[in-house]
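anyone seen this seq b4? input:
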Amino acid sequence: MDNEIIKHLEIVVGGKSYSGKEISNNPEIFEIARRNQILLPIGIFDKVKAENGTYRLIFADDKTVIRGLKNVSHELYKEFLSIYPD
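predicted toks r here
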């Protein structure tokens, strides 16, 4: 997994948030991020990166994955919601 991806990624597992080096330094969380990077649509992710925002993957107890964005423009968030309305 690329460091540029990790820099703009937040993983939430068991109610605890991991980002950046926390992902890289935790083998279990890194593996979760690596296995689920397919959930990062490249077009949206490139825009998140360009805005220096964060793409969130929240793993619920029932194994559901909730996607979200942090620190991005309103326009990008609207675009994201048009693709992933729930």
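The mean pLDDT is 90. The beta strands are 9-13, 16-19, 54-59, 65-70. kinda curious what u guys think
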